[in-house]
Amino acid sequence: MFRFTSCLVIGVVLLTVGQSMAATVASQWTVEDGGNGHWYEPVASGDGISWGDARAEAIARGGDLATITSAAENVFVYSLVDSREFWDSVDSLGPWLGGYQDPLASDPAENWHWVTGESWDFTSWARSEPNDWGKEEDRLMFYWRKFTTDTPVWNDQDGARRINGFVIEYVPEPSSLALLAMGAVGILAYGWQRWRRRVPVIRAEDGLVCHCLAQAVLSRASKRGRS
Ligand SMILES: [Ca+2]
Ligand SMILES: [Ca+2]
């Protein structure tokens, strides 16, 4: 049953969420610019952060680590992190991305996946990468900032290593606008239920009682007529 208090709570919560999403510092890759409409938020981590902790933080904020499935998306996302605070001291190791490799894969280039389950088709590995350099490297990051020109490149890295940043990707479903609309619908539904309670309603059982009473009156009148 649709409960009045639930309507109000859902409406207020959705309105609040919609407003907080609108206030984010993320940048949208707009459809008008050839993008997918998703939002991307670069996060700097001065103390360093592992891939696993970065992903947990991304999910806690309502998104996931960024997945890059085209050259255009690669360029757009890189443009958001082409800044000193997201890289190590020599601009070599860049922010974490949402790519990971099966732990038992023997070939450094095999069995990579995106956290979202999108197909792993597009890649932009730096020269000689991925390479499992010195040990197992099964998490994805941007690589070599100062040597990157038109083609941002990637590196496979040990996920436990503490890196200076990561990128969150938010899929706007439902969009902030839709959330606001849903919030408004919740409040309207609450108002409608309040109004409905003030209008007398003849229930089915009430109708049955009325019907029986009418039958009894008619039956009695009929008996009187015959007597
Ligand atoms: Ca993506
Ligand atoms: Ca590597």
Protein architecture, described:
The chain has 227 residues and is an alpha+beta fold. The chain has a domain of 133 residues: Roll (Mannose-Binding Protein A, Chain A). The protein contains five helices and eight strands, in the order αββαβαβββββαα. The structure holds calcium ion (2 copies). The site of one calcium ion has 8 residues, from strand 7.
Map the helices and strands.
Layout: H1 4-22, E1 27-28, E2 39-49, H2 51-60, E3 64-65, H3 71-81, E4 93-101, E5 112-114, E6 139-143, E7 153-157, E8 163-170, H4 176-197, H5 204-226
Antiparallel strand pairs: 1-2, 2-8, 3-8, 4-5, 4-6, 6-7
One calcium ion binds near residues 66 and 67.
* Spans where pLDDT lies below 50 across 5 or more residues: 1-24
Q: Order of SSEs, N→C?
A: HEEHEHEEEEEHH
Average pLDDT metric? 80
Described by strand count, sense and barrel closure, the largest sheet is: 4 strands, antiparallel
Q: Globular, elongated, flat, extended or rod-shaped: what is the shape?
A: elongated
Strand content: 15-25%
Distance between the termini: 53 Å
Tally of helical runs: 5
CATH superfamily of the domain at 38-170: Mannose-Binding Protein A, subunit A
Helix content: 25-40%
The beta-strand count equals 8
- Content-based structural category: alpha+beta
- CATH topology term of the domain at 38-170: Mannose-Binding Protein A, Chain A
The second-level CATH architecture of the domain at 38-170 is Roll
Which ligands appear in the coordinates?
Answer: calcium ion
User: What top-tier CATH class of the domain at 38-170 fits best?
Assistant: Alpha Beta
Order of strands across the biggest sheet?
1-2-8-3
Which value, in Å, is the CA radius of gyration? Answer: 30 Å
